[in-house]
Amino acid sequence: MKAWEKNIRTIKHPYVAGYQPKDYSVTKLNANENPYPPAPGVVKAMEEFETSSLRLYPALNADELIDEIAHFKQVKPSQVFVGVGSDDVIGMCFLTYFNSGKPILFPDITYSFYDVWADLYRIPYECPKLDEKFHIKKEDYYKDNGGIIFANPNAPTSIAVGLDFIRDVLEHNQDVIVIVDEAYIDFGGESAVSLLEEYDNLVVVQTFSKSRSLAGLRVGYCIASEELIQALNTVKFSYNSYTMNMLAIKLGAESVKDTEYFYQTIDKIIATRTWSKEQLEQLGFTCMDSSTNFLFATHKSMAAKEIFEKLQERKIYVRHFDKERIDNYLRITIGTDQQMEQLVNALKEILPDEKNING
Ligand SMILES: *Cc1c(COP(=O)(O)O)cnc(C)c1O
């Protein structure tokens, strides 16, 4: 071992993203991306973008984007912080808010990046177990802690909690920062943004990656009290002043302006989700009650891993987690109607014929 090796920051388990095939012809239902294109205004702004302006640095405060988000969410611009996807925003929140030395809390089954950031920043953490139906138990969050983060709706379970739940957690945790990761809130569930007036220790994180069809642009944001946003900005300006590039600012702002397209796209996905859930249940799957753009499903007779592999042979990609408690589940992103029909047809080929089984 070289002398300097021991001084390198090593992370044993970095985050593993869903497989990104180079072949665009595959049916990609493994990363909760939106199957529809971004809003027409985004496409137009991209076409009209003045390439020569790229010689300049982007706007330091990303005002154009922040103002649109603030207007849409009916909060002050000084309550909004934007980043390179919500991953950047949440990572920045961990660095800024979780410095007490006490363990932070998040569920055992949740977005698998939380423990990675905690490891990266040397933040101790504890992971209370979801109950046997994969619901978060609020009593687990009543104990002394260094901060709390949970996803609502949760991933990969797809299950949402109500505002009464979040309010209860906040009431029991007034001395720490509570982050609610609302990556999927636009597909169902009630946003905690309405609680911000009452709780100055609440941070609500959202993203353009799922409901706004802009995963590739990398735009995410959080809304919180001015004081908390100020703290985040101080940390950000001590690390990388220009996180938001010109295109992310411009196209992100255009996306927010087009509310009609936004709600239309969400409605289509919810309708397809309802249809897909019925189809999967007829095929012998049990699906959690989804408030997201994906279904979390387990089959009564065939192992999830086997289904996953057989779908992959047919160029249909879904997500399987080799993790205790959820290794017999598949996380299936809601695609277009056509993609979901393709999935259902493939499953009909793959799954054992019930009549044969029963003799
Ligand atoms: C997708 C996702 C994110 C991060 O998305 P970005 O593309 O970085 O905005 C954060 N949290 C959860 C629960 C997610 O599913």
UniProtKB/TrEMBL annotation:
UniProt cofactor(s): pyridoxal 5'-phosphate
Reactions it catalyzes: L-histidinol phosphate + 2-oxoglutarate = 3-(imidazol-4-yl)-2-oxopropyl phosphate + L-glutamate
InterPro entries assigned to the protein according to its UniProt record, in alphabetical order: Aminotrans_II_pyridoxalP_BS, Aminotransferase_I/II_large, HisP_aminotrans, HistidinolP_aminotransfase, PyrdxlP-dep_Trfase, PyrdxlP-dep_Trfase_major, PyrdxlP-dep_Trfase_small
Transmembrane domains' residue ranges: none
EC numbers, comma separated: 2.6.1.9
Aminotransferase class I/classII large domain sequence ranges: 26-347
GO molecular function, one term: histidinol-phosphate transaminase activity
One example of a Gene Ontology biological process annotation: L-histidine biosynthetic process
Pathway connected to this protein: Amino-acid biosynthesis; L-histidine biosynthesis; L-histidine from 5-phospho-alpha-D-ribose 1-diphosphate: step 7/9
Chain positions found as N6-(pyridoxal phosphate)lysine: K210
Record keywords: Amino-acid biosynthesis, Aminotransferase, Histidine biosynthesis, Pyridoxal phosphate, Transferase
Family: Belongs to the class-II pyridoxal-phosphate-dependent aminotransferase family. Histidinol-phosphate aminotransferase subfamily.
Subunit record text: Homodimer.
Protein name as annotated: Histidinol-phosphate aminotransferase
Organism: [Clostridium] polysaccharolyticum
